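User: Run a structure prediction on this.
Assistant: Running it now.
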Amino acid sequence: MYQFLSTVIKIAVFSLLVGAGLSLIDISADDILGYVGLSPMALWVYLNLFIDWAIPNMILGAFIVVPVWLIIYLFRPPST
């Protein structure tokens, strides 16, 4: 757990530094999105479409994965 939290904090700090650097040279998120042909609203729409697609598929997959994992976990030999 410590390694995971450490990685998350490192990514957050590095993202903050890169964002501050880009802000210093007057580059905004709108500029970058415009360069690739998106607007913030279009990005939001695509994100919502992805979530609407992903969540039902994750639930459907969990109907198979969770019972298989549970059976494997229950029949695994005990560790010492």
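The mean pLDDT is 93.
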